[in-house]
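new request in #modeling-help
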Amino acid sequence: MHTPAVIFWTILLFASILWYGFLVFYVGIKAGREIRTMIAELEKTLLP
Amino acid sequence: MNLTLPDWIIIITYLIGCLAAGLWMRKFVRGVEDFAVAGREMDVNLGIASLAATELGLVTIMYTGQLGYEKGFAGSMIGVIMCIAIWLIGRTGFVIGPLRDAGVMTIPELFQKRFGSRVRWLAGLFVVLGGLLNMGIFLRLGGEFLVSATGMPPGWLEWVMTVLLGLVLIYTALGGMLSVLVTDYLQFLVMGVGLVVTSVLVIDHIGWINLVEGLTTAWTGGGAAHSVTQMTAHPFNPFHASSFGWGYLLWQFALNIAVATTWQTQISRVLATKNADTAKRMYRQTAFYYVGRFLLPGLWGAAAFVWYAQQGGLPKELTSLTAMPHYLSLVLPVGVIGLVVAAMLAAEMSTDSGYMLTWATVIYNDLITPCLRKPLAPKQQLLLTRLLVLAIAIFLLFYGLWYELPGNAWDYLAVTGNIYLASVFTLLVAGLYWPRGNATGAGAALILGAIGPLAFLLLGRTYPIAPEVAGAFSFGLAALGMIVGSLLTPAPSTQCILPR
């Protein structure tokens, strides 16, 4: 059961769960800011 | 139905939020450039969220779950290969760097600069043909997940998917890429939380040691001698002959290099970035996401296999495709299932919106525009692109809901995508890196590259052709067409060669 392949998939799976959890917060906050900046830039272009 | 009031509140709140955000963005759309590539204002993290949301659809969750059910963890090796391919391209900037610097809206537009308008038109046709056939099965597979996971009557499938597509259509047709980016962001958040929560609950339910031992027993034949409780592919070693094997995995590597540099829905994010460096960073930082894209739903599929094997086998009404969502309906508690259904709706909606927008842009930009004698006014351009989004939605509804999948979902997606991947990839590489390549070579590459996958689709039922053979042939023939066609005819003029 403790073959290298099983260990490989175990590490990869738990790393993926952690990575997804991290990305949701990290990218969530940063991309939220980028949307605000993008909208501010776009609003400038709407001004007469 | 497995849904309770809290589940419904979560789902409806999510849907209203998405629709409102999508509709709000439409006021910023002034022309086709804003509609198709968001005015090229996208920064790296928004790019990651959008790319990740678009490339992880409900269809992805279904076929990766099916791979997990049939091949155990080894089925997720394709995700590892994708991760390597995308990271390598993000590291080197191979194709995506010069493509972004060229300032085009679609890949075929680049071909016009390099190979002339005929090649652009033909490439656009192949891109659309491969892309739409590929997208054709999204709705049914997504609907089957929802039916199995929520316990809704199967007769509702068509109506639920029609309403869902209608919602996506409204904000995509009105707000274009700007709406897609903002809704992708919301969908990325909901989907990420749903994937993590579901994976933790599945491990908690099945037990990690029990899962590994269950798969090992099913493979070594220690379980009951019954086809539904035995796994015919090695569950941990993808290189084993019973699993994918070396040939298939090598084809997947070539295919994924081509996908990462050529697949128009991915490339549309590259083209929407601020510059080539942002595009490369976006690729590098998204790469590992592709491992989980296969591994997490693969985990759910493998857990479903072990669970049903330990219950005496898969119920007759279930298949390797529907086993995973049905299993989730047993595992997930009230309230969480609402979150997971919202997450899966998010996956479906972000993919549908991204794909509809991308193919509509290619049809407008590369098939219709080159045929017009007088350019359209900006308002007419926008109206035409919106009408194309509507036409694609109608196609999806009819083709997607009556087409019966011939076997494994992943193979169908890979082969239909390959209709244009091999040839367009060859054209891109030659166009950007081989000054001797010319229009004759490009035309030959396009036609020859499509022969392998079309033979698989048309003759595959009568004469079994391995998907990796069809795929390898298409790459080989496309390259041969480009080299021989270009060398046998005069070199292109220096004007046709892109500045480097």
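bot summary: Chain B has a mean pLDDT of 82.
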